[in-house]
Amino acid sequence: MPLLVVGSIAFDSVQTPFAVREDVLGGAAVYFSYAASFYTSVRLVGVVGEDWPEAYTDMLQRRGIDTSGLHVVPGGKTFRWRGKYLPNMNDRETLEVHLNVFGEFSPTLPESYRRCPYVFLANGSPVLQLKVLDQMTDPQLAVADTMDLWIREEHDALLELLRRLDGLVLNDAEAKLLTNEENLVESGYKVLELGPQFVVIKKGEHGAMFFSEEETYVLPAFPTRRVVDPTGAGDTFAGGMMGAIAEEQAFDPATLKRALAHGILMASFTVEDFSLDRLREIEREQLDERMQRFQKMLAF
Amino acid sequence: MPLLVVGSIAFDSVQTPFAVREDVLGGAAVYFSYAASFYTSVRLVGVVGEDWPEAYTDMLQRRGIDTSGLHVVPGGKTFRWRGKYLPNMNDRETLEVHLNVFGEFSPTLPESYRRCPYVFLANGSPVLQLKVLDQMTDPQLAVADTMDLWIREEHDALLELLRRLDGLVLNDAEAKLLTNEENLVESGYKVLELGPQFVVIKKGEHGAMFFSEEETYVLPAFPTRRVVDPTGAGDTFAGGMMGAIAEEQAFDPATLKRALAHGILMASFTVEDFSLDRLREIEREQLDERMQRFQKMLAF
Questions:
Q1: Could you tell me the maximum CA-CA distance found in chain A, to the nearest angstrom?
Q2: Is A62 on the interface with B (CB under 8 A)?
Q3: B120 pairs with which residues across the strands?
């Protein structure tokens, strides 16, 4: 079943303790789409400037990603982010943000997108996320990501969004900030009380936790020696998770847990190189092989 | 099979964001022994002062813990530690340490202890740990814990110890410090190169990682809403792990992984109350029940 994603498309400049890359392809919607495309057809909504190379559109289309929702602003410049990872490769510092055309992003969904059964609202202002949701016709599963900025500065809109979502994906620091609760398990339950049917808390190198009325669990990350660039890990996690849900056309507890595992593995590949470089090297076969190793790792 | 543990016995004064306890029973060897006693008979080696209540010795003995290696120093005072947990309940600050009789601890093992097949050298100076190991007659499995202090100040003795150990248990920060490596997976491999057959890296609320020539894996912690006091979690983790090994009388890869899971669950109970209070409430049945939930949680 098709999966709709709305979010940022960016050129990232990334500095790690080991290497530097300038203006590589990034943005939450790009990472998400690419990861989800291993499982299902994806419909992408985003905005870029005139500096966007046509070759990237071609590359996404070859992955079965529908780009009719990709808006190119004449004379505009694409969103740019510059960041630096600390030696632990988990914490990062944002050095520069140029929203450019993303600052005025107010998407109108193509008619063909509005009945999409699965939708992911990648990190963005909750006002914008609500606006997208308003254009959807009865989605089966609406899930969103958020960040500290919106928790702090658009709190009311975020609370309204939470009442309308089926699922929320956020990281551990964001969950604690949103609920003012330091115990992550308690924090997850408190987010649930804000509305969504399920909550996924991403813990970076420590995996992810899942919360719903029925169950709480945690899966570790897949251990990898090769951590080159964590940028996009969270977005490809969400892409793998939502992609697996759309592929199975189900979101019962067992499917959701498998989907979470797919997200974790997708993230484990993403961090092994810059941008989409590692994901572009792999096929579904390698994902499945890593999934078998992951399942074996967790059995005793 | 009997399991020998050598290490500290203490009175802890613990401050958390929620409560304060003064002079509660603690110390690595006590936590370890109590946890291991769910699985096997334990032989305890440690030192206390005249202020040690006989009732504690009785309590340990009722758990099948052999206390003939418990040395009471006439006129001496038992080791005291005072610490304060930060709101995240993971990081802590040591406010006071009074080594007292533990400062002169130089154990001579009772003759009956020397052929014990399984030995755990709880956190202590590697010089002292080596001295204990020297008194053992061909143990089948010798495992130790260590800490930042020894990594910094008794580095050479620690390296000698590592060459003689079968297994090392340490936490994530200690592994990074010992190997000067920020990637935890790489760090685990580097500790392996220092000698032990296997290395377990404790990650607190994020579970534990295992490294050997044959395999690397990570298991998450068991998620608990009730984190009252993390003191002793690492020691009861080791006690559960070593206890399960001694019970199964094996340390093949499959047994080691099950043992790691036992350690994780033991720690998950420990943090639910101060001192040994939570462990004293449970029976093997509750452990087994939580183990079933843990296995189910990790299956998908």
A1: 58
A2: no
A3: B5, B143
> 191-220 in A: which are within 8 Å (CB) of B?
203, 205-207, 209, 216-220
Residue A106: count of CB within 10 angstroms of its CB: 10
Distance between A158 CA and the closest CA of chain B, angstroms: 25
Hey, is the C-beta of B106 within 8 angstroms of any chain A C-beta? no
β-pairing, A42-48 with A20-26? unpaired
- Closest listed residue to residue A194, CA positions, set A221, A174, A208: A174
Q: What is the pLDDT of residues B29-38, one digit of tens each?
A: 999 999 999 9
Q: Of 3.20.20.140, 3.60.40.10, 3.40.1190.20, 3.90.700.10, which CATH number belongs to B3-297? A: 3.40.1190.20
**Quick one: CA dihedral B292, B293, B298, B300, positive or negative?**
positive
**b/e burial code for range A241-261 (CB count within 10 A of at least 16 → b):** bbbbbbbbebbeeebbbbbbb
Contact B189 A88 (CB under 8 A): no
Domain boundaries, chain A: 3-297
pLDDT tens, A213-243? 999 999 999 999 899 999 999 999 999 999 9
